Amino acid sequence: MTITHTYSSIAEKSPGRVAIQTESEQITYRDWAQLVSQTANWLRSRPQPSMSNRVAILLPNSLAFLQLFAGAAAAGCTAVPIDTRWSAAECKERLSISDADLVITSAFFKNKLTDSKTHVVLLDHCMADISEASAALLPTINPEHPFYMGFTSGSTGKPKAFTRSHRSWMESFTCTETDFSISSDDKVLIPGTLMSSHFLYGAVSTLFLGGTVCLLKKFSPVQTKEWLSRESISVLYTVPTMTDALTRVTAFPNSPIKIISSGADWPEESKKKLAATWPHLKLYDFYGTSELSFVTYSTPEDSKRKPHSAGRPFHNVQIEIRNAAGERCQPGEIGKIFVKSPMRFSGYVNGSAPHESGWMTVDDMGCIDEDGFLYISGRENGMIVYGGLNIFPEEVERVLLSCAEVENAAVVGIPDEYWGEIAVAVVHGNTDARKLKAWCKQKLAAYKIPKKWVFTDSLPETSSGKIARSSVRKWLEEGAV
């Protein structure tokens, strides 16, 4: 079984149902199932060495992107999305790390590949060949086979490639059905880049379940508002920064929409404001990582009852908090978060694989309360050690983001001769250091309050909408403070 194996049965049962809808085109499940099979057979028919085990895709959000991604998965290949925003040097680096056999791109982006040794196929050429390819049934694929390769930079900024198996995402699909209650009846809006696994997963899981994917070419608050008002959208995938932008343009209609938000960094104040203004919205947020996939989630009721929590474990996930000695912590005691899950990744490319025990950690720290709800302190390797005291940047950022005048904020540690490290806050907002110090004093121990403050017009973000902490640290090291 693969992440695409339901397409043919959905096409037989509901051939006229729309699978994917964009601003300029749409496709039914009857045509989608055929197109994916043709794409897979085209990939499988390519002569060596071009017949690819690893297929890189350098394209913006589009029906073609999803077609190539799904076709590669159905063929037994590993799809490697390449960000159109990366420089030529960054594209070359990722293609080298991935050891991709070919990269499919449009003429517009081909200039990003001039220095790459990877074989390039232009989109127009491959689409013409795919239209002539067979739609015959495909061979059975081992569910443990990797179908997706992504990149994560962690705290260092240096890219690391990881792979996910068909089985891991199919296990995740059960969470989408069981814990988020998403089904074939849903019309799902994907406003963010498919380079983010959150939005890519939202699209691919919807197609697996038989729903309709509404795909934007790129995120625009105004365009997202138009789709929400024009179409009968029932599910919206988003991240906190996007949700805040949508709130500012009053994007939400007076109809029930389920919001699936990635990140335990969605500030409590933002959630409260959203719920108060649009009480009919159903707010779900979850904590997860590239390596672990889904870990915990909060329902609308959970967010009201446990507003500071990252939620409870998904139905197929186990969590343990362990101290430095490897012993299990008591409720409320902070330690390292270990997860046992069938959704974990297959491993890093040319690197480590998950432990045989099934338990795994990405070095996030936190605790569990008496009811089994997880609270995240921050990442161990991002922890600032100030005069022997531990400061988690994420905790300070949550306090800063709860201030109405702050648009965005990042806290990082920089070396200090006396203290070892000090916390520096980089803030985008209409406020000043004096006001923010007073705000933090109400909510944080004195030693956690940043010792230096830098104000900026914007903060660098990753493709998933999170702060690019390594870029912020590099900027500070280059003389911003």
Structural class: alpha/beta
Q: How many DSSP H or I helices? A: 14
**CATH third-tier fold name of the domain at 1-164 and 181-217:** Rossmann fold
The CATH C-level name of the domain at 1-164 and 181-217 is Alpha Beta
Shape: globular
Q: Could you state the oligomeric state of the chains shown? A: single chain
* CA distance, first residue to last residue: 54 Å
Could you say what the CATH architecture of the domain at 1-164 and 181-217 is? 3-Layer(aba) Sandwich
Percentage of β-strand residues: 25-35%
Overall description:
InterPro entries: AMP-bd_C (IPR025110), AMP-bd_C_sf (IPR045851), AMP-binding_CS (IPR020845), AMP-dep_synth/lig_dom (IPR000873), ANL_N_sf (IPR042099). The protein is of the alpha/beta class and 481 residues long. 31% of the residues lie in helices and 26% in strands. Among the domains are: 1-164 and 181-217, Rossmann fold (3-Layer(aba) Sandwich), CATH 3.40.50; 383-480, 2-Layer Sandwich (GMP Synthetase, Chain A, domain 3).
